[in-house]
Amino acid sequence: MPEPIINVSYIVAAILFILGMKMLGSASTAVKGNRISSLGMLIAVIVTLSKSDLDYTWIVTGLTLGGVVGLIAAKRVQMTGMPELVALFNGFGGLASLLVGWSEYEKVRSGGWADYLESAGDAMPGQWFLALVIVLAVIIGGITFTGSIVAYLKLSGKIGGTATIFPLQKLINLLVMLGTVVVGCYFITIVDSGTARFWLWWVIVLSLLIGVLGVIPIGGGDMPVVIALLNSFSGLGAAAAGFVITNTVLVVAGCLVGASGLILSIIMCKAMNRSLGNVLFGGFGVLTSSGGKEVEGEMKALSVEDAYYVLEAAQSVVFVPGYGMAVAQAQHVVKELSEILERNGAEVRHAVHPVAGRMPGHMNVLLAEADVPYEQLCEMEEVNAIIPTVDVAIVIGANDVVNPAALEDEESPIYGMPIINVHQARSVFVLKRGQGAGYSGIINTLFFRENCRMIYGDAKATVGSMVAQFEK
Amino acid sequence: MELILLLFTFVLAAFLGFELISKVPSQLHTPLMSGSNAISGITIVGALIASGQENDAISKWLGLAALVLATINVVGGYYVTDRMLSMFKTKKD
Known about the structure:
The complex is a heterodimer.
Chain A: H1 3-24, H2 30-49, H3 56-76, H4 82-111, H5 113-120, H6 127-155, H7 169-189, H8 196-215, H9 223-244, H10 248-271, H11 276-281, H12 304-313, E1 316-321, H13 323-328, H14 331-343, E2 347-352, H15 362-369, E3 377-379, H16 380-386, E4 392-396, H17 405-408, E5 427-432, E6 452-456, H18 459-471
Parallel strand pairs in A: 1-2, 1-4, 2-3, 4-5, 5-6
Helix pairs in contact in A: 1-2, 1-10, 4-5, 4-6, 4-9, 6-7, 6-8, 6-9, 7-8, 9-10, 12-18, 14-18
Chain B: H1 2-21, H2 29-39, H3 44-52, H4 57-92
Helix pairs in contact in B: 2-4, 3-4
C-alpha cells in the first residue's frame, strides 16, 4: 500500500480507538465500544502488514503464538482472577515496548548511524532524539513489566500481599532511579560509539529493578491504584515506542491510555482520601500496628443458625462485598441468598465501595457475573444515606472500607477515607475467615461494636449454610 | 517538522484521554481498564515492523519476542474485556 493510504488508515484506527474508549464509559454501549476499538486494532495491524518488504514467516509465527496464548489465557480465567490477568497482560505490553525500543537500537547500530540519519532526513532532529526516545521506551516499558509482574504475583497470592519494607528502602529506590537517569543520559551522549550497547543493557537492568522496588512496598489494599497506574505506564511506553519508530497511531493510542490510566489512579486515590504520592511512597500497611488506639470491647461470634433468625425477620438487608468474596468465590451463593431474602419480603441491596477488591470496579464484575440485578447495586453515597434504616448489613470479606476508625480515629492510617457506614445499621454481620486484622493489618473497630456479630468461616460455606437454613 | 507534529499529537491525545475518562461510572472501571490495556498493545505495530523488516539477527529476534508479547496483550485483552462486558449486558435484558 502506498504511504498516504497507510497514514490515513492509521488515522481511522485512532478514531476508532477514541470512539471505542468513549463508548466503554457507558453501560449500554460498552460492549460495542470494545469491539469498535478492537476493529481499530485490526485495521492498524493489517495496514502495517501491507507495508512492502516485510518478512512474513517471522510475523506469522509471532502472531500465531501470541494469539493462541492470549486467547487461551483469556478464555480460561475465572472472573475472580481478573485483576491478576489484566496485570499480567499489562506487563507483557510493557515488555513489548521495551523490546521494540531495544530492537530499533540494534537495527540502527548494525546499519550505522550515518546511514540511519540520512534515511530519516527531516523526521529526526538528530541522533540524540532517537537515543532519548529509545531510553524512554526502555525505562517505561521495563518498569511496567516488572511492576506488573510483582503486582500479578501479589494478586494471585504467589507472594505475600502485604507491603515489603526493608531498611533504607527509600534511599535505595532513589539511588536506583537516579542511577537509571544518569546511565540513560550517558547512553544518549555516546549512542553512536561501540560501548553504547553496554550502557543500554544497564538502562534495561536498572529499569527492571525500579519496577520491582517500586511495587513491593505497596500493600494489597492499594493494588487498585497501582494497577491503574501501571496501565497508564504501559500506554506511555507504547507512545514512547511510537516516537522511536515515528508512528502516529502508537503515539495517539499510547497517550490515550496513558492519560486515562492516570485519571483512574487519581479517582481511586480520591476514593481513599489519599494522594498518589502517599500511595506510592507511603509504605502503607506495615506501620499500622503502631497507629490507632486500643479498642475497647470484644468481638462477638454468632452461629449461622442465629443469623438465620435475624435475617428471617429483616425488612431490609445490605450486602457489602470485598476481596474476601472474590477469594471465596462466593458471588453466586450470595446472589442465591439475596433472592431468597427478597422472596421473604426484604429489600436487598449490594453496596460497592469504589476501592473494594483488588482492581477498580472489581466487585461489580463479580456481582454481574452472578447475575445480580443492576438496580440492586448501590454506590457508597446512596447506601450511606439509607443505612440507619437497614436491619442487617452483611459484610462479606470487606474490611478497611467498613472500618469506622476512618471516621473517628485521627491516628488511624486510613483516617479520612470515606467508608460505607455499616456500623449505623441496626445489626451488622461480618463474614470473616478468622480473627486476624485482615489484608492491610489495620484493626477494624467495627468488629468490637455492640451491634456487630462475627460469623467465622469460609464466606462461601457460611452463605451456603444460610441458604440451606432458609430452605429447610 | 514531522517530529513537532508528533509531539503536538501527543499533547492533544493526552487531553482527549483525560476528557474521555473523567465521567465513567465506577462499575465500568474494570472493563475500561482492561479495554484500554488492550489498546496499549498498539505497540504490536512497532513489533510487526521490527520483526518483519530486513534487519540484523538480534534486532529481528527482539522484534519477534515483542510481537508475541504484544499479540498476547492485544488478543487476550480484547477477549477478556468482551467476556466481562457480556455479563453486564445479559443482566440488563
